[in-house]
Structures are given as structure tokens and as C-alpha cells.
């Protein structure tokens, strides 16, 4: 979206910018918040029609493994690591039988590699022994696997099985609090309160859109408010850079003209693929 569109959206917001602008604004009712939240979702759908999980995967097992590896690191680093990992261990049976030292060496770039290797071998053995070598498509089964919590389970269900779910990662949590959709800090409580705002059919794509926005524009320390297409709907407008030219320099990934996080992005992704490990 160009600067013209961003400016026009801001202009329509109570005079000077965000949803909180104006004289002694009355507290927002729950109904008004729900309407604003749903409008934000619609706006983000227009801005990011290509929103998708930013982990490379070809099947449910690869997505499960990649999501476990993504803890405390970037999706980019995971995507740069998994080609060698899945070349060596393409199935749960292969990974369950891995030599720990060799597995650890492959996943070392993702950090916490010893704990992650134990989780990967443990979940792979459980898939082999309890689920016929297949990733289960039920939340109750997924969260029993070593290293798999509710967030990871929702990622797998939503993107490998088409089961709607809200994924509360760091970006999602801080944006929905910034937008006053919830005040909760606990991920499960955040998930429950946000889920109550939207139809179930929207949950998975909502998660992608919010995370995309958090990674590209609505940064944690310095959000690019002056380049934000939903500035007029944001009660936190002004916390970041409001000058359009300066804000534009803060944009990341395809929004800023840089490569994305996936080495193999979907066909409709408008940006450049990420470089492989060691390519810069």
C-alpha cells in the first residue's frame, strides 16, 4: 500500500491519527472493540492477501519439526537449517533412530540444540510407536508429544490439516494487547479472548495476518506508525515513528524491499526468497 493510502486512512481517524485521538474520548465499549478488531482483520487481509506460515514445509511432519525448532530463533534460521535435516531424516522413523550427536550438529544453528534434539527424537519415537508414523490431526494428541505445546499444535492443525486455530506467539500477543483486544498476558487466555471476537473460520488466517504485520510494520520497540495502513484503527498510534518517510525506512521483508524468511515461499508471495544458509 502506498503512502497516499496510508495518509488517507490516518486522516479519517478522529483528526490527528489513531483510534485514541480526540478530546477526552469515552472508554470503548466491548461491541465497539469487536467491530474495530474485525475491521482491522479485514484491512490486514487486503494488505497481506499472501499471508502464510513462514516456515518451509512439505508435509505435517516437516511442519511439526520446523515449529519445534522455531522456539527462541527466527523462522529464517529454521528454514536455512531444515533442508539438511530432512535430507538426513525424512520420516519420524529416521529421526527417532538418529545418532544424537549428528542430529544436534545439524540443528545447532537454531540454538538450544541439545534440548531440541531430545524433543525431536522423542516426538518422532512417539509418532512411530503410537500413531503409525503419522502426525495426528487432533489437539489432544499433539500436545502429548515431547516438545509440543498448544501454540505448536495450533500451527500444525491450522496449516497442515485445515483445522482453525489461533497461534499466540510473541508478535501476536503484543499486537493484540497494543490494539486493546485483550489485556491478558497468558497465551491461552489471549487465545480464548481473541477467539471470542472472530468467527472460527478466520482464526488461522487472522494469526498469519497479525504476525505478518508485527514482523513488517508494527515492531516491538519502534513501530512504523507513519507507514501503517491501520493507523486510524490503532489506539497505540504515535508510540512509534509517525513521519511517513522515516517510518518507511523501518519496514521489513517484502514491505521494505528485502528478502522474506522462506527459501521456498508460496507462488503468490510478492517478495524475494530467503538465501540458503551461508549465502549471506
Quick structural summary:
This protein has 280 residues and is an all-alpha fold.
Write up this protein.
With 280 residues, the protein is mainly α. The protein folds into two domains: 3-21 and 28-52 and 166-256, Helix-hairpin-Helix base-excision DNA repair enzymes (C-terminal) (Endonuclease Iii, domain 2, Orthogonal Bundle), CATH 1.10.1670; 60-160, Endonuclease III, domain 1 (Orthogonal Bundle), CATH 1.10.340. The chain is 48% helix and 0% strand. The chain contains 13 helices and no strands. The chain has helices at residues 3-11, 30-47, 60-69, 75-88, 92-96, 100-107, 113-130, 139-142, 150-160, 170-178, 187-195, 203-216, 244-248. Helix 3 (60-69) runs antiparallel to helix 9. The longest helix is centred in the first third of the chain and has 18 residues, at 30-47. The model is unreliable at 1-16 (pLDDT under 50).
Topology:
Elements (H helix, E strand, L loop, with lengths): L2 H9 L18 H18 L12 H10 L5 H14 L3 H5 L3 H8 L5 H18 L8 H4 L7 H11 L9 H9 L8 H9 L7 H14 L27 H5 L32
Helix pairs in contact: 3-9, 6-7, 10-12
Amino acid at each position: 500500500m502506498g503512502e497516499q493510502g496510508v495518509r488517507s486512512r490516518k486522516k479519517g481517524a478522529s483528526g490527528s491519527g489513531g483510534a485514541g485521538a480526540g478530546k477526552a474520548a469515552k472508554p470503548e465499549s466491548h461491541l465497539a472493540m469487536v467491530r474495530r478488531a474485525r475491521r482491522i482483520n479485514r484491512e490486514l487481509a487486503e494488505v497481506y492477501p499472501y499471508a502464510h506460515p513462514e516456515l518451509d514445509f512439505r508435509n505435517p511432519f516437516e511442519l511439526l519439526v520446523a515449529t519445534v525448532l522455531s522456539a527462541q530463533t527466527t523462522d529464517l534460521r529454521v528454514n536455512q537449517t531444515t533442508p539438511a535435516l530432512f535430507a538426513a531424516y525424512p520420516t519420524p522413523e529416521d529421526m527417532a533412530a538418529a545418532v544424537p550427536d549428528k542430529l544436534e550438529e545439524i540443528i545447532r544453528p537454531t540454538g538450544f540444540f541439545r534440548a531440541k534434539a531430545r524433543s525431536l527424537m522423542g516426538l518422532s519415537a512417539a509418532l512411530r510407536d503410537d500413531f503409525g508414523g503419522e502426525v495426528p490431526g487432533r489437539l489432544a494428541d499433539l500436545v502429548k508429544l515431547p516438545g509440543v505445546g498448544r501454540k505448536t499444535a495450533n500451527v500444525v492443525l491450522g496449516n497442515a490439516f485445515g483445522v482453525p486455530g489461533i497461534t499466540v506467539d510473541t508478535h501476536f500477543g503484543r499486537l493484540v494487547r497494543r490494539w486493546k483486544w485483550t489485556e491478558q498476558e497468558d497465551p491461552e487466555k489471549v487465545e480464548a479472548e481473541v477467539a471470542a471476537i472472530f468467527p472460527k473460520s478466520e482464526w488461522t488466517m487472522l494469526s498469519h495476518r497479525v504476525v505478518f504485520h508485527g514482523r513488517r510494520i508494527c515492531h516491538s520497540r519502534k513501530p512504523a506508525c507513519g507507514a501503517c495502513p491501520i493507523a486510524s484503527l490503532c489506539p497505540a498510534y504515535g508510540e512509534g515513528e509517525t513521519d511517513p518517510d522515516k517510518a518507511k525506512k523501518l519496514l521489513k521483508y517484502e514491505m521494505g524491499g528485502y528478502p522474506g524468511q522462506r527459501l521456498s515461499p508460496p507462488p503468490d508471495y510478492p517478495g524475494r526468497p530467503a538465501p540458503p544458509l551461508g549465502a549471506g
